[in-house]
Each structure stands twice: as C-alpha cells, then as structure tokens.
Amino acid sequence: MMLAITNGHIITMEGVEYHCGTVLVRDGLIEEVGDAIAIPEHAQVYDLQGKYLMPGMIDTHCHLGVSQDLQSLEAEREFMDDYILPQLRVIDAINTQAVGFKTAREAGITTVAVSPGSTCVVGGQIAVVKTMGGMVEHIILREPAALKMALGEIFTYRGLHREPTTQARMMVTASLREAFVRAENYAREDKDLDLSMDIIIQAKRGRLPVFVHARKADDMMTALRLAREFSLDLVVVHGNECESIAHYLVNYEVPVLISPISYNKTGDFESIDWSNLVRLEASGLKMAFCTDYPMIPIESLRHFAVKAHAAGLSRNTALAAITINSAHILGVDDEVGSLAEEKEADFVILDGDPLKAESNVLEVWIKGRKVFAKT
Q1: Burial of 266 by CB count in 10 Å (0-12 exposed, 13-18 middle, 19+ buried)?
Q2: Whole-angstrom Cα distance, residue 359 to residue 161?
Q3: Are 18 and 35 contacting, i.e. CB atoms less than 8 angstroms apart?
Q4: Other CB atoms closer than 10 Å to residue 210's CB: what's the count?
Q5: What is the pLDDT of residues 120-178, one digit of tens each?
Q6: At what angle do helices 168-188 and 217-230 cross, to 10 degrees?
Q7: In sequence order, which residues have a C-beta less than 8 Å from that of residue 226 and are 6 or more positions away?
Q8: Pairing of β 347-350 and β 234-238
Q9: Using CA atoms, how far apart are residues 262 and 268, in angstroms rounded to an integer?
C-alpha cells in the first residue's frame, strides 16, 4: 500500500526542509520526499495541515529494557566492577515489555542503542533496536552494534561502600591491554572458537566500534591512547570534560555521546551551562545526544536539543544530534536518521517546531506503521 503524507513542514535532515512537502511511503520504506511530488491515484492521502514531520529520534546510549531503575545499576557494582566480559550480549537481557519502550515511543524516539552497564571494564555488546515493542528478534536493527568498555572513576571504588583504590586506573588500563594482546595472540593461532576473544578481534579489525564510558579528560586521553595502540574505532560516552581536549578528539575523528548528566549528575536541565555545547560545535567535534536512561528520563532526549539550541547551538547540529549524527555513529545511517529514499519510514509528527519546548509529539510512525497517536 502506498501512503502519501502531504502538506507538512518536512525536516529531512538531508540538507533541506520542505515547508509544504510530501513523503511517499510504500511497504514501510520511504519512496520519495519533496515539495513537487505527483501523488499516485491509488495512494492513501494523509494531510498534515501544516504540522511538522521529522525523522524518528535516536537515543545513542541507554539501558532501556535492561535496567529500569538506578538501584539495579548500582547493585551490579558489588560484584562486577572489574571484569572483562566482551562475550555478553545485551539482547539476551532486554525486556521489550518494559514500560520505557512505550515512554520512548510516545516521546518520538523510534530507535535506541541499548548498552550493558558501566560496572565492567568490558561490559559486553551493544544492540541498536526499534522501540515498537514485540519480540527482541523483531526489533533488532543492528547487533552487535558496538563493544562497551568503561574507564575512570567507577573503578576507583571496588564495589559499594568501599575504600578507593589508588592504582585502579592503571590496573583497569593494564587489564584492557592484556585482553587485546591475548586476542591478537588468539587470532594468530589455530584454536577453537573463543567468544570473548573473537568479539575483541572484531573490534580490533574495525568491524565493531568501541564505546568507552569516560568522563574526565585524562580517562578520555587513555581511551584515545588505547584506540591508537590497537586500531580501535572509538566513541566516547559522556565526556564531561571533552571541551578541554576537543582538538585531540576532532583530530582523531572521535565522536562524543553527550547527556545532561555529562554536565550535572542530577540531569537538572535548568542548572546546566548549555553554552558549552556551542563551543564544542565551534571546535568541529561530532556529537550526538543520549539519555543514559534510567539515569534521566528517556523522554527528555528532544528537550536536550531544545535547551542546547536555545543556548546558541545551531538548528542543524541540535537536530542532527538526535537524528542523523546518532544514526551515523551507530552505523545505521543507511536505514534511519533522515527522511530519504529507501530508508525506513520512521518519523514523528509534531504540532510545532521540534526545537520549541511547547511543541508536542502528536504521532509516531515506525516502518510506515503508526505506533502512537496522542488522544
């Protein structure tokens, strides 16, 4: 069936906005986008009456369906604070019935990167999934999408309510080096399949990006050092102090996934200096936004872009940070992240500009199927 969505303000994230545009959808895919499209006679016409239509939003780092509260994340630290577990797959723990999936859909988030927690040095394999619910196998967009690692202050305390370990940063980094050297040796030898070594080799050969939880500048530089030593495709998660080393990150083409808690542990939007993001944009740093749900509510993703834009972040960068930049970093930009021919028909209809706080999500579509309508 052909669906013609017409008479809308279409934000494509392909370098053009159509103030009175049309999107043609067939079999869950976008067939054509433009402002002078001939609508086929057999098409079902959907008149937007001037409303805004944008690509489905993408949360680049969260724990949706895996950890639904802060207590479950904290509890892991008692017994999983320094393990190397690359063989773990987050899809084996995702509960698609979790309430967060519904909340994400209603906020216009159609795709999420679900990550293991940051309580292991190597926590496992990240998966990119759609938010429409159903069996995990039916919502996977890319798996594995990345390998999750963690550096920094998490490991200065060995579990909850314990004394700090002064050599923790050196120990953690040494354990990562040892794991990569073991993987190199494994790859040179004719051995039976080792799931943990095999996934590390995939990362080392550039087939799988490495998402590293790092907040402080020195930890990010350690991540960059490891990436150069072992030829890793690095992505920094959080990067609280990335402004101070932005030139290094830009030089080595390392993107950063930023959430409100990158600047404020409580995620309090009103107390954050959003102008920091303006300076990061000026540096040329590629960034995307994330919620780190359940650290902050997943429905806050768009409002992060709203606040950043109000502080001076350009319109394109603010929108790209929740759409096409996110898709590119996750390696799924050939399928989602913008409205273009042959991409999946994931889009959001709003009653106003998405970068205006007062605008509301009215409908959400995933693969050409309406999954939410505001009543």
Answers
A1: exposed
A2: 44
A3: yes
A4: 24
A5: 889 999 999 999 988 999 999 999 999 999 987 666 555 544 555 667 788 889 989 99
A6: 10
A7: 173, 176, 177, 180, 232
A8: unpaired
A9: 11
Beta bridge partners of 289: 258
- What is the 8-class DSSP label of residue 54? E
Interstrand relation of 210-214 and 140-150 (parallel, antiparallel or unpaired): parallel
Predicted TM-score of the model (pTM):
0.93
- Nearest Cα residue to 102 out of 112, 113, 116, 91: 112
| Total Cβ atoms within 10 A of residue 40 | 12
Q: Got the DSSP string for 95-139?
A: -TTSHHHHHHHHTTEEEEEE---SSSSEEEEEEEEESS-S-HHHH
CA dist 138 → 133, 141, 142, 367 (Å): 8, 9, 11, 12
* Longest CA pairwise span in the chain (Å): 71
Residue type, 56: G
Residues 262 and 238: beta-carbon distance below 8 Å:
yes
Alpha carbon 251 to chain centroid distance? Answer: 22
Take residue 112 and report the two structure tokens written for it. Answer: 């999420």
pLDDT at position 152: 78
DSSP 262: G
Strand extents, DSSP E, 134-273: 140-150, 210-214, 234-238, 256-258
